[in-house]
Amino acid sequence: MAGSCVRAGALALVYLLLAGGASRGAESPRDQAWAILQANWNENGVEKRSQAVRVLALLPGDSRAFDLMKKAAEDDKPEVRAAAATALGQMHTPTSLILLHKLIDDSEPSVTLAAAAALTPRKDGLAYEAYYEFLTGERKTNDGMIKSQMKTLHDPKKLAQIGIEQGIGFIPYASIPFEAYKTLRVDDVSPVRAAAARVLAADPDPASGRALATAVSDKSWLVRTAALEAIAKRGDPSLLQSVVPAMMDDNTSVRCTAAAAVIRLSGAAGSAGAQRKKQ
Predict the structure, then answer these.
(1) Could you give the CA distance from residue 179 to residue 225 in angstroms, rounded to a whole number?
(2) Three-state DSSP class for 11?
(3) By C-alpha distance, which of 179, 202, 209 is closest to 191?
(4) Do 188 and 100 fall into the same domain?
(5) Measuring CA to CA, how many Å separate 23 from each of 26, 36, 39, 41, 102?
(6) 68: domain range?
(7) Chain centroid to CA 58: how far?
(8) Domain assignment present for 244
(9) Most buried of 26, 58, 208, 273 (most Cβ within 10 A)?
């Protein structure tokens, strides 16, 4: 009796699987694809929902994808909002820009960081303000868009969590991946601040230049290296004197980066002087 019940149950399961397969076969591949994304979006697990949102960046111009991104941007989970910011960064529309500006004002630093990264290719001023705050722990202006309740910027454990989650993506440049990885294992805060320093290379605001000059003396060699690289790329000869002492740093990466920065800025200073003489 028991054996016949098992066989009956197995036959019923096979029937259901075949019926389901026939039903799916009637759907177009596009319908099946959306069913997969929608199923992951409906999951309770944050990781699956975030993945479903992140890949929407591959669907520019798709209204259904954009509607889902807008919902994700207001999700109660910061991981999902951060995924929305990453996807919205690929959508070059006025509405996506409005949503990113809202997300960069998020009270969760990981969301702000994702929105800033999405806005950086546009050379958006709010992105630079966010990275300035991540580097210095302070707001650039009293009326800046970054919320004052981002108290976690001063919370090493919270920044460490962001560093672990985003980690290798924050390595300042490819020539030091292994050493930076070893640093990440024992100091998870520095990669976040190093990334902020690197981005500020393109911020024309003199306040960012001063922040980078201060970061040259940071306790983390990773941040010092990133700050020196950023100063070199800014090409501002007025920052030369803040770089020179770093050529005596104990860390090889810092010393070499400082040396290159001095050479580059010295050339910029010479060009500027020659231009003034011509005038």
Answers:
(1) 12
(2) helix
(3) 179
(4) no
(5) 5, 15, 17, 22, 42
(6) 44-122
(7) 18
(8) yes
(9) 208
